[in-house]
Design brief:
With 281 residues, this protein is of the alpha/beta class. The protein is built from eleven helices and eight strands. A six-stranded parallel beta sheet has the order 2-1-3-4-7-8, with helices on both faces. It has a two-stranded antiparallel ribbon with strand order 5-6. The protein starts with 5 loop residues before the first strand and ends with a helix.
Length: 281
């Protein structure tokens, strides 16, 4: 039986490092209130089914800084395929808007490059854009990102672990405060612990380190928007601006539309209604 095409737009939401589809829920409720459909993706190694280091939930968290990640074999291709699978199932809608946050910009960009016919617009929410430099680490280490916080959050040797590992369940108040100040400084204080407890500890090493190559005839033909976060302490606004400027120079035919959101790196936690309104706009 042939499926009936659906009218309207659907937002396909791709989370960033250590997050999951669950963190999009408040934004999805706000989108629904505005009459917009949405579906959130779980990238491999994230979400409730994510495998965890064996000591992560045990008393004292033994081996957390040294145990190789169960996600070490996850590739950028695996992550892009998870996005593509959702895009294929969303194509019944009139318009498909692909939205990514932070490190999710790599898998989303690669998915759009491979199947631009599945995407009508791509939106980056303080997210990695590989238009000028192919790896997220190329921007995280740029001088424009020197004011970013969070340098003390990473555990162990990421290359040896096969993951960029953090400890959302840390018993150290100083560590927890750095996590809050970096990612959630404007999230209501009584909700921060709930948000951090929902994080997973490992980001597959491939996500920030694998080059993503874009082309003018595929990714470059898509309409694209950048929602920059004005008080972002995890990815500095100057680094966000750098990614947009370099992508526009590399793909000048259809430059980014740029809009600015107030607040932190995590608008889906701090102000989901505003984020939903910006997406619908």
């Amino acid at each position: 039986m042939t499926e009936t095409p659906l009218s309207g737009s659907v937002f396909v939401l791709v989370h960033g490092a250590w997050h999951s589809s669950a963190q999009w829920a408040p934004t999805q409720r706000a989108l629904a209130a505005l009459g917009a459909a949405s579906v959130a993706v779980d990238l491999p190694g994230h979400g409730f089914d994510a495998p965890l280091p064996s000591g992560y939930l045990r008393p004292g968290q033994p081996g957390l800084s040294t145990e190789r990640s169960p996600l070490a074999a996850v590739t950028m291709d695996d992550c892009a395929e998870a996005v593509l699978d959702t895009l294929r199932r969303s194509r019944r809608y009139r318009d498909v808007v692909l939205v990514s946050h932070s490190a999710g910009g790599g898998p989303a960009s690669l998915a759009a490059e491979r199947a631009p016919e599945l995407v009508d617009r791509i939106v980056y929410v303080s997210a990695f854009v590989p238009g000028g430099r192919p790896r997220f680490f190329d921007y995280l280490g740029a001088p424009e990102n020197a004011t970013a916080l969070g340098g003390g959050l990473t555990l162990g040797d990421p290359e040896a672990l096969g993951a960029v590992r953090i400890n959302p369940l840390s018993p150290d108040p100083g560590y927890v405060e750095e996590l809050r100040r970096t990612h959630y400084h404007d999230t209501p204080a009584d909700r921060f612990d709930r948000w951090r407890h929902a994080l997973t500890p490992d980001l597959p090493w491939a996500v920030p380190t694998t080059p993503v190559t874009l082309t003018a005839r595929r990714w470059g033909r898509l309409r694209r928007t950048y929602l920059r976060c004005a008080d972002d302490r995890a990815l500095a606004p100057a680094a966000q601006d750098l990614m947009v400027a370099e992508a526009d120079r590399a793909f000048p035919a259809d430059p980014f539309t740029v809009r600015t959101l107030p607040g932190s790196h995590s608008p889906f936690a701090a102000r989901p209604d505003d984020l939903a309104a910006a997406l619908v706009a």
